[in-house]
Design brief:
The chain is mostly helical. It contains 9 helices and no strands.
């Protein structure tokens, strides 16, 4: 059991190390508004991952690769990421000041961040594919043990994203990037548009 847990935890952690749209949203929000606001996005991302884990644990195949639901998920995710990327690409790049509310950029509430993080992770088809594939390898494992693995992965997602938020929102980091927010936002926008384009290519190939 310990070997299997290390395998599951290791594969999951390697997946966390791969930066995706959630990572860029957390970093940008932490730089611009502080880690407390970015923690809302982190919580939303963890909730969406928990939903995918619960579906995979329940053995539902509705979001299996190639299914209509999975294609719709890919399409919705691509459109959402493209919209976010377009907005960031045309951002005014408001400079960050170190005072509590000195930035003129709109401050999203914690709950708005929660919703944004949840939607971003929910519309990422890679999350559904990863958890469906992982749990398909655990069919011989006791259901209660699978559930414990799921709880661990949700906690790992939340802990890792909070670590990213706190690190990016640290005063030293913010001061270093304060003068380059416009470049950071536009780079993030380009990356999200590239991810959206990749999703579109995958859909066209599958079709």
């Amino acid at each position: 059991m310990l070997e299997q847990f290390l395998m599951v935890a290791g594969a999951h952690f390697l997946a966390l190390l791969s930066p995706g749209p959630d990572f860029f949203l957390i970093v940008r929000t932490a730089l611009l508004h502080g880690w407390q606001r970015a923690s809302g996005i982190s919580a939303g991302v963890a909730m969406a991952n928990g939903l995918f884990i619960a579906l995979a644990w329940a053995g539902l195949s509705a979001i299996a690769p190639g299914s209509a639901a999975f294609v719709l998920l890919q399409l919705g995710g691509g459109l959402y990421l493209g919209w976010l990327g377009w907005r960031l690409l045309h951002s005014s790049g408001t400079a960050i000041a170190m005072g509590a509310d000195s930035s003129t950029a709109p401050r999203p509430s914690w709950w708005q961040g929660l919703r944004m993080g949840f939607i971003s992770a929910l519309l990422n088809p890679k999350n559904a594919l990863f958890y469906a594939s992982l749990f398909s390898l655990l069919t011989e494992t006791d259901r209660s043990v699978q559930a414990l693995y799921g709880v661990w992965m949700v906690c790992a997602v939340l802990g890792w994203d909070l670590l990213i938020a706190v690190s990016a929102g640290h005063r030293v980091v913010v001061e270093r990037f304060a003068r380059h927010l416009g470049w950071i936002e536009r780079t993030t926008g380009v990356l999200l548009l590239l991810i959206a384009a990749g999703v579109a290519v995958q859909i066209s190939i599958a079709g």
